[in-house]
Amino acid sequence: MLQGKSLIDPMDFSVQELNEIFNLAHQIISNPREFSHVCDGKLLATLFFEPSTRTKFSFEAAMMRLGGKVLGFSEPNSSSVSKGESLADTVRTVSCYADIIAMRHPKEGAAKVAEMYAEVPVINAGDGGHQHPTQTLTDLLTIKTVKGSFNNMTIGICGDLKFGRTVHSLLKAMSRYENNKFILISPNELKIPDYIREEILQKNNIEFMEVEKLEDVMGSLDILYMTRVQKERFFNEEEYLRLRDSYILTEEKMKLAKNDMIVLHPLPRVNEISNEVDNDKRAYYFKQAKYGMYVRMALIAKLLGVV
Ligand code: NCD
């Protein structure tokens, strides 16, 4: 039963509940008209304390395509936060007006705090370098639709594995499926945090390896998940500039990959995938963005209990 729940961490929902969401997303994709009024009279508040294009727009588009309405801010300086209001008070107040909240915040754990004070479901749209569970729903729906399964795959995750919250959430979520192998590709400075390596991968006996060179492993991958080096989380500009171009996926490198490998990326891309790869039939990142809207439609409808 998903009605009334919040989504703060990818493990908040059972595999069964995730399947309910993916099944509903597929129903919406094949018959969007049937769902175009299920949220009539409902309001989504989007509280974005950190910049976003896709996530904010896809939440808003999702709610509007369900017949609901949206209010919110993307510039905290234009809200009472700039007067010193606490997150707890902001969220309590917004709960008086909206039926559901989607929030992005630069601080790790902020979504959890919001959930504690909100009277309505809270969806974590990214909390600092921690988690981003709705991007993971997007990634999983794409994998399920294109690959037909969540099992028996070799998944390469490449780029900023230290600060990339989408990486942390994807690893958590995929750790529950069977017989997957992870190849973690990053410079030494941007390896996955210890808590992910120990609590998720080692504890669950998941096969993984950590490597630095993308070319060496390209041929073994079923999925390549590229990520951006997270500029905004660096303390030191020089270090960012040094690591920024660690990986650039080119058509030349794509020649090393299997014919049915797929390339995913949460976007925005900076220059880690060159534009020439966009025309490769294995490039799925823009379709992935579209799945993101459908899966958020399914999520909102389930949490509001309207379907
Ligand atoms: C991601 C994020 O915000 O963490 N973007 C997104 O939501 N699609 C990835 C990123 O910013 O690199």
In terms of structural class, how would the helical and strand content be classed? alpha/beta
What are the segments in which pLDDT stays under 50 over at least 5 consecutive residues? none
Share of residues in strands: 5-15%
The total of beta strands comes to: 9
Shape descriptor? globular
Biggest sheet, open or closed, and with what strands and sense?
Answer: 5 strands, parallel
Return the CATH architecture of the largest domain: 3-Layer(aba) Sandwich
Mean pLDDT: 96
CATH topology of the largest domain: Rossmann fold
Taking all Cα atoms into account, the compactness measure Rg is 19 Å
What is the rounded distance between the termini? 12 Å
CATH superfamily (homologous) name of the largest domain: Aspartate/ornithine carbamoyltransferase
- Which CATH first-tier class of the largest domain would you pick? Alpha Beta
Q: Can you list the strand order of the major beta sheet?
A: 7-6-5-8-9
Give helix and strand order, one letter per element, not per position.
HEHEHEHEHEHEHEEHHEH
With helices defined by DSSP (H or I, 4 residues minimum), what is the helix count?
10
Function: Catalyzes the condensation of carbamoyl phosphate and aspartate to form carbamoyl aspartate and inorganic phosphate, the committed step in the de novo pyrimidine nucleotide biosynthesis pathway.
Binding site for carbamoyl phosphate: 54-55, 104, 132, 135, 267-268
Catalytic activity: carbamoyl phosphate + L-aspartate = N-carbamoyl-L-aspartate + phosphate + H(+)
Family: Belongs to the aspartate/ornithine carbamoyltransferase superfamily. ATCase family.
